[in-house]
Design goal:
This protein has two domains: 285 residues, 2-Layer Sandwich (Antithrombin, Chain I, domain 2), CATH 3.30.497; 107 residues, Alpha-1-antitrypsin, domain 1 (Roll). 27% of the residues lie in helices and 26% in strands. It is built from nine helices and 15 strands. Strands 2, 6, 7, 8, 9, 10, 13, 14 and 15 form a nine-stranded mixed β-sheet that branches. A four-stranded mixed β-sheet has the order 1-5-3-4. Helix 3 runs antiparallel to helix 4. The radius of gyration is 23 Å and the shape is globular.
Length: 439
């Protein structure tokens, strides 16, 4: 019997909105160094995970993203959460599994690659390179804004803005080994994940491992997720991914105050709403109404009322229209720590990685390992902030002509259950977060 081990631990977190001005930009992640201990972890109650039929995964609705993303979303809808507010980060989950796959071999690696939708390790590496490129483009956006603001300040000193950057987007990884248990990470594996995933490597004593990991998590998520592990004294190794996003709307929202929101059960509850009217991608048919609200840095948040089947196809048919958008401000936080992600991977055919006898992680570690658990915590917060004040005066004089008819905005009002998708724009949009607000 091999030693009980956790080798794949996933973390996801997002702060989707913040105060921004034209001079804000992305922060670069700073490698952690000897993370301090945190408070004593508290145990969590054990609870059974509802059984999910295989058909719920195999016959998942086509949202238009990767099959892995589609099936994960459908699985979680069926796993006892259909009537709950919740969120998940497919990207963070895939990033952690990428590290696991890079340390696997044989059938264990083959099953992981197939579940992730990659035909080879090279294809997986290429995908992760696009993730990192998206981080770079986000940073470039705000760097360019800073340059433009600095140039403007040469001619209009009073317009200079010295506010520090607060916008940020990063996808960072770390691996941790337990000094008090046999084995350690192989250097070839550490070299591989450093090159492919920019992962950091640490080790800690058994009694300090959970606190060390939690301190790293707390730092990388700006305190939004203070901890991910309760106890790791009998854990040999941990793989962690942290995804953090903070940006503002391209056009600001205005507060509306509390309004009625009709829950999935038909109950009316009060929620704080916000509103903006601007030109944005909009689509409507008999089953679906959606709007894609742009955020700064090449990110968009899609709000969907009704059926989200074939979402990418519907987005491709969306027209750029004037839309009056009314949505509630919300905080949603989800802990997937009851074997949901383990069960999902098993339904996807990943069996060997969870077997103490059959798991093949020799390229990763000098002592036999298998995956004991996979955990994700995710948090999304949106509000009206992101205010940017500006004044433009234009006096245009030309030959007289008839005034055009004012454009009537489309109305999108999410005062009933809706789903949301946070996408990083690109040739193939990356699904950073998916979630739903139903109560």
């Amino acid at each position: 019997m091999k030693l009980k081990t956790i080798i794949c631990l996933t973390l996801a977190v997002i702060l989707a909105l913040s105060c921004l001005t034209g001079c804000q930009g992305a922060e670069n992640p700073v490698p952690a160094s000897d993370p301090p201990a945190t408070k004593e972890p508290q145990g969590k109650p054990e609870a059974p995970v509802p059984a999910v039929p295989l058909s719920a995964v195999i016959n998942a609705k086509a949202l238009g993203f990767s099959a892995f993303d589609n099936q994960l979303v459908e699985y979680l809808k069926q796993a006892g959460r259909a009537d709950e507010n919740f969120t998940v980060s497919p990207l963070s989950f895939k990033a952690a599994l990428t590290m696991a796959a890079l340390g696997a071999e044989g059938e264990t690696q083959a099953q992981l690659l197939e579940a992730l939708g990659f035909r080879s390790v090279d294809e997986m590496r290429a995908w992760y390179a696009t993730v990192l490129a998206g981080v770079d483009r986000f940073d470039d956006f705000f760097t360019e804004m800073e340059k433009e603001a600095a140039e403007l300040a040469k001619y209009f000193p009073d317009a200079a803005n010295s506010q520090e950057r607060t916008a940020a987007y990063w996808v960072v990884n770390s691996v941790w080994s337990n000094k008090d248990l046999p084995g350690e990470f192989r250097q070839s594996f550490l070299d591989e994940i450093a090159k492919t995933c920019y992962a950091e490597a640490y080790s800690a004593k058994a009694a300090e491992l959970a606190d060390a990991v939690n301190a790293w998590v707390n730092e990388k998520t700006k305190g939004l997720i203070p901890s991910i592990l309760d106890d790791a004294s009998d854990t040999s190794a941990v793989l962690v991914n942290a995804l953090y996003l903070k940006t503002g709307w391209e056009d600001g929202f205005a507060k509306l105050g509390d309004r009625d929101f009709t829950t999935r059960s038909g109950e009316k509850v009060q929620k704080p709403f916000m509103e903006q009217t601007a030109h944005m991608a909009y689509y409507k048919d008999n089953q679906t109404q959606l709007v894609s609200v742009p955020l700064q840095g090449g990110v968009s948040m899609v709000f969907v009322l009704g059926d989200d089947t074939g979402l990418a196809g519907k987005l491709s048919k969306a027209e750029y229209k004037l839309v009056d958008v009314t949505v509630p401000m919300f905080d949603v936080e989800t802990s997937l720590d009851q074997k949901e992600l383990v069960n999902y991977l098993k339904l996807m055919g990943c069996e060997k990685m969870f077997s103490a006898e059959d798991a093949e992680f020799d390229p990763m570690y000098t002592y036999p390992l298998y995956v004991d658990d996979i955990i994700q915590k995710a948090k999304v917060h949106i509000d009206e902030e992101g205010l940017e004040a500006a004044a433009v005066t234009a006096i245009a004089m030309a030959a007289g002509a008839a005034m055009p008819e004012p454009e009537t905005p489309e109305i999108f009002c999410a005062d009933q259950p809706f789903s949301f998708y946070i996408l990083k724009d690109g040739a193939s949009p990356e699904l950073l977060f998916w979630g739903q607000i139903v109560k």
